[in-house]
Design a protein that fits this description.
286 residues; mainly alpha; two-stranded antiparallel ribbon
Amino acid sequence: METFLYINWNIDPEIFRIGGFALRYYSILFMLAFAFSYWFLYETFKLEKVSTDTLSPLLIYVFIGTLIGARLGHTLIYEFDYYRNHLLEIILPFQINNKGAYEWTGYQGLASHGGAVGILAALGFYSKKYKQSFLWILDRLVIVVALSAFFIRIGNLFNSEIIGNPTQVDWAFVFERVDMIPRHPAQLYEAVLYLIAFFVLWIIYNRHSRLLQSGYLFGYFLIMLFSIRFFVEFLKADQEAFESEWLLNLGQLLSIPFIFLGIIMVVLKSKPRENNNRINKKSFSI
């Protein structure tokens, strides 16, 4: 078997380390996702003549909701056996080593399904406090969530985590920090598809947002993103040993309810609205 075409991946996930603190590519990409989200939503709010004073609180709510939801989703679903004996490590970005010393690790365990639930809960609190339509916010936010998912999966690639199944395709990655087996770069597959989803959502918003009922774009987002997650999971290595005995893994089982919710939203919100006084005919370019 020829292996010279394979991509040997041995990137150090840490950019630099000072004592117990390390700056990781994942952290940089995570923050880039929020920085771009702020810019995109700022332009959207201006375009639709909505006060941008509520934008910073919105992103704070989303950031906290994402972090708490994704962290709890990972620790309770994927690594419950470990974290039930290390409760403090669930909420702190540190790990306690065998010597009892704290080592900065960041929040390396984050689950997208938990993050989705966390965002929905955070937006519920936000919309109630700032008197904004829950579905109107969701329709704009999901566009940048799709792009954020792209950044996160690239971060997973730098961490050599969420790897794919063994394969002999020419573009296979050898994740040397894991093993020397050529594997599907599942993180890259997902990242590219999420980037495509972002552009699709952005185009729909720019061309048809004046005609769509609130909630339609949110439903379209759920169908696209979680269908991507569902099908790419077939090429991923199981994150937990017990998943090997299942027909579908946890990621796929958790994606199904979100897909059905998206279908329901699209069906319920598919009728064009008669008028819209909020959005003008202008759009903005990326």
